[in-house]
Amino acid sequence: DQQVKQNSPSLSVQEGRISILNCDYTNSMFDYFLWYKKYPAEGPTFLISISSIKDKNEDGRFTVFLNKSAKHLSLHIVPSQPGDSAVYFCAASGGGGSNYKLTFGKGTLLTVNP
Amino acid sequence: DVKVTQSSRYLVKRTGEKVFLECVQDMDHENMFWYRQDPGLGLRLIYFSYDVKMKEKGDIPEGYSVSREKKERFSLILESASTNQTSMYLCASRRPLYGYTFGSGTRLTVV
Predict the structure, then answer these.
(1) Distance from CA of residue A50 to its chain's centroid?
(2) Do B105 and A100 count as a contact with CB atoms less than 8 A apart?
(3) What is the DSSP secondary structure assignment for residue A83, as one 8-state letter?
(4) In this structure, which of A55, B9, B24, B47 has its CB flanked by the most CB atoms within 10 Å?
């Protein structure tokens, strides 16, 4: 039973345009959400996070939006750059008291074309 | 910055071998994790540990065991390697209520 879902396996955008990556979750106990970026043959690196008490968090070109009623979050990258091409994982924690464990989605491969 | 070090970037092992994957973190974190990443399947949790000598099974523990004798070191053991354990293995550590810091990963090939 997948608690964190990234329904788009891949996304392709032009350099300079906006990239929007989506993530849905089913566990209403989740209260902390993160995005990780992963290049091939490297470990994932933390990108941005958001607590359930907020609906938006911004860090430079990256913004995460949280819609708790819809159990949906999204990552916006503006403007997109070729170096942003990577796999992006959505993750969540807080369900059932296991606040030290993250549950990950399957990832979305973002390709930014020059 | 937290550093999580995995002892090998690439490993090739034979079917039936016992394989040890080592992970060390330098920030005194209680929580450590082992994941594997496979195309189309994302990151799947194998085992985690929330303190020395404490361990819990994750979502896919079959064929694996772990050891945490010291706080900074968390080892993943493949008791008898099989070809379906060919994967990218990722170790992470975490301070409670914060995100993970991952190691660089070990690409294991079982032939």
Answers:
(1) 10
(2) no
(3) G
(4) B47
Residue with tokens 């995100």: B99
Residue B36 C-alpha, separation from nearest chain A C-alpha, in angstroms: 11
Range list of β-strands (E), B52-105: 54-57, 64-70, 73-78, 87-94, 100-102
Provide the residue-wise pLDDT of chain A in tens; the chain has 114 residues. 689 999 999 999 999 999 999 999 999 989 899 999 999 888 999 999 999 999 999 999 999 999 999 999 999 999 999 999 999 999 998 755 555 788 899 999 999 999
- What is the spatial distance between Cα B90 and Cα B80, in angstroms, rounded to a whole number? 19
Q: Within a 13 Å sphere around the CA of A59, how many CA atoms are in the beta-carbon half?
A: 10
Beta-carbon count within 10 A of A17 CB: 13
Can you tell me the distance from the alpha carbon of B22 to that of B31, in angstroms, rounded to the nearest whole number? 15
Can you read off the two tokens belonging to residue A109? 């491969």
CA pair distance B107, A109, nearest whole angstrom: 19
CA B45, B7, A89 angle in degrees (round to 5)? 35
Residues of chain B with Cβ-Cβ distance to A91 below 8 Å are 99
